[in-house]
């Protein structure tokens, strides 16, 4: 960095490299365990090199569960809910940030209060609502309740407050834009970095969700990935090598997605910083 001594740069990069190593090691250890047998996983001191049992463990996973069927179910639910979250949260966040309407402060305060309620407390009321609607055992019960989140609205409201300038909205009104066109044509392009983060955050949250799908889904052919992976745990004994292989297979799509969108995500943030 400009203006810093070489020693400070070395210390800074050393700390950053250590942070990266600490963050990456759990994924590396997961991959190592997926290539070993259960007896080798229990070995002490642990072996930190890859073994040769990965294909056998993967075959065991595929023979015990419908991995690819649950993978498609999870992909459908995660993509659908993430798209809906991006639309409704950006719409609400933009309105809270840039428009004035009666009860705005009260509604936003109530929104913040909902963020303090533990998700587990809403399981029974949510299940009863889904039962009244006849949605128990369907993907609608996973997608519709999660199509907007208090955190998403709060995040985009905070971002839009500083990134979307009032002069742009005034210019849009002069050109004849209504409320929705101001959101769609003026606000949404500026919100791309925040939307990229929220999209990744929502997708990963939906992909890793276990408790609500376990409660609401009733048919094995509609199970999501996390519920299906839980079936790998035996009653009396568990093949941890097989469990680790299944976990690795479920994690790889997330890693690939992050690698694909991370460059665009970083470039959007840099572009927004330059514009500001």
Automatic annotation (TrEMBL):
- Tell me the keywords, alphabetical order: Cell membrane, Membrane, Transmembrane, Transmembrane helix, Transport
Cellular localization per UniProt: Cell membrane
Classify the protein's membrane topology as the record does: Multi-pass membrane protein
Q: Where are the transmembrane segments?
A: 12-31, 71-94, 135-156, 182-204, 240-261
Q: Quick one: a GO cellular component term? A: plasma membrane
User: May I ask which residue range the UniProt record assigns to the signal sequence?
Assistant: none
- Domain called ABC transmembrane type-1: residue spans: 71-261
InterPro entries per the UniProt record, alphabetical: MetI-like, MetI-like_sf
BP term (GO), one? transmembrane transport
Gene3D superfamilies recorded for this chain? MetI-like
UniProt similarity note: Belongs to the binding-protein-dependent transport system permease family.
Q: What is this protein called?
A: Carbohydrate ABC transporter permease
